[in-house]
Structure formats: C-alpha cells, structure tokens
Design goal:
289 residues; alpha/beta; Arc Repressor Mutant, subunit A; D-Maltodextrin-Binding Protein, domain 2; 3 domains; nine-stranded mixed beta sheet; 43% helix
Length: 289
C-alpha cells in the first residue's frame, strides 16, 4: 500500500469519477484505475461496484475510505511539521485575550525577543473559548488563557498565577471612595463589558445569577482600549484586572464582595507537535512567572 494509491482512491471517491480524479491529479485514467485495482488485490476485497456510468462504494470500500482519510490526514500533518523543521520555523502563533495581553505581553516579549531575536511572535487576540478552539484545530501553537480549574484533558498548561477582577470607575464617580462593593449595589449602573465570548463575562454572569441578579451591560466591545477609554470618560463603569489600574491613574478599582479571582495559564495542545521555538517560549515564561 502506497500513499499515492490512497490519494488516488480518495480523490476518485470524492469526485465520484475515475476520469475526473485523473484530471484533477494530472495523471492518466488507467493509472488511477490500476492503483485502485492494486489495492483490491493486496487486501482481497472489492472497493467499487463498477457501473456503465461510474461506480458506487461497497461496504468494504466505505470502511477503507474512512481509514485511508485518517492515514492521509496524518501524512499531511507529518509533511507540514517536517517542512517547518526544515525551514527552521522561527514562528510562534500566540493567542491572548486583550486584558491578559496588555498585562503580560510587554514583559514576555522583551525577554523572549532578546534571547530569540529571529523568532516571530504572531499575536491573535480572542476570547478564551475561541483561543482553545484554535489550539485544538492547530491554528494556534500556544495561548495565555483565563480559567477556573484545569483547562481540559486536551491541553497541557503552565500555571502562571491568579489575578483579581475589580469593578472600575472614574475617580469622580460617587462610588470611587469605596474599597469593595456588592453586586446588588451595581444595580442601575451603566456598565461596559467585553463581548459574550470572553471568559470574564462567563464568571460575572455566573456570580450575578448565583445571587439572583442579572447583569445587563449598556455597551459591549472586543477592544481593551475602547473599554478603558469609555470608563475613563466617566459616563460608564466596567471590570478590569487589578494590575492594569497602574496604567490608568484616573481610575479606581473596587473589589467585589466576595473577591473574584481568575487563574491564568499558558496552554498548548496535549498531543500536538512541539516545535523547538515553543519549548523556548515555554521555558522563558516559566522563568518569568
């Protein structure tokens, strides 16, 4: 059995025609037919029921197609990995939610780029759920994520620490003199929040629901800069990680009662291929945090 035979068979099945498969593969029709016949002879099965105007897959053919597609998918992944290694990849696709990016990326980038100046960090800003999905689908190599409990059995992760989410208002706001605030006291406040896909929203909505309350933001955004500028304007309030307040002296943060803490970890795919650049990045983050 050869990969080329599997490829010919898969293409013929997808197009429903040996002739069209030969055209797409830029080979002769007898070559496709011969490859499929060789597979049938090797395994002692009939893969196609041949008709005057085409063919249908037999039960054995359907089973073989399923296995062939798995093998071809693995072969394609292996090919991409080896091509990346051969090119000395020098690229990390890194996912970060906006607040974690603002909090951690400057320090991480400064340290990592000084040690690995030829490795490009390509940054993708998304919410937690989308970042985890992209790691599973191999669209990202690594991601910083907020979470409660382990990120999931599909991932490996490096725990970095926890951070407090606080309620933020402009220093001229009537609530600015308080150290903490209950969720009931937020009733009637005009609040700006990140979009629903962000993990912070899940935590806050859950906390409000547990107390029999409903969180109804006046505005939503996917950009940290938009959120902070709106709060700084004084007309709305919102939620930020406490360490970010150092960059916004015009804001003050009130702890929720009880405090709302979020774990942060660097995660990657458990059964994915680990490029040397990924190992270097993980080592760098481990030393920093």
């Amino acid at each position: 059995m050869k990969l080329s035979q599997l490829r010919y068979f898969q293409t013929a099945c997808r197009l429903g025609s040996i002739t069209r498969a030969a055209e797409e593969l830029h080979i002769s029709q007898p070559s496709v037919s011969a490859a499929i016949k060789e597979l049938e002879q090797e395994f002692g099965v009939t893969l196609f029921s041949r008709h005057y105007r085409g063919f249908t897959l037999t039960r054995e053919g359907l089973a073989f197609l399923s296995q062939a597609e798995l093998l071809l998918d693995q072969a394609d992944k292996c090919s991409e990995i080896m091509k990346d290694i051969g090119r000395k990849r020098n690229l990390i696709r890194l996912g970060v939610p906006p607040m974690i990016g603002s909090l951690m990326l400057p320090r991480v980038y400064e340290s990592f780029s000084s040690e690995h100046p030829h490795t490009l960090l390509r940054i993708y800003e998304e919410g937690q759920r989308e970042l985890l999905r992209k790691i599973i689908s191999d669209e990202l190599d690594l991601a910083f994520i907020p979470h409660e409990g382990p990120p999931g059995s599909e991932f490996k992760y490096l725990g970095i620490g926890s951070v407090e989410t606080v309620y933020c208002v402009h220093k001229g706001h009537p609530l600015s003199g308080k150290d903490s605030i209950s969720l009931k006291e937020l009733s009637g406040e005009h609040i700006v929040m990140f979009k629903d896909s962000f993990f912070q929203n899940e935590l806050l909505n859950r906390r409000f629901k547990e107390e029999g309350l409903r969180l109804s933001p006046a505005l939503t955004t996917g950009q940290l800069s938009t959120l902070t500028s709106l709060i700084s304007g004084g007309s709305v309030s919102g939620f930020l990680f406490r360490p970010l307040l150092e960059s916004y002296p015009e804001l003050c943060g009130l702890s929720l009662d009880p405090p709302l803490l979020t774990d942060i970890s660097l995660v990657w795919k458990k059964d994915g291929f680990m490029f040397s650049d990924m190992h270097s990045f993980i080592d760098c983050v481990s030393r920093l945090f």
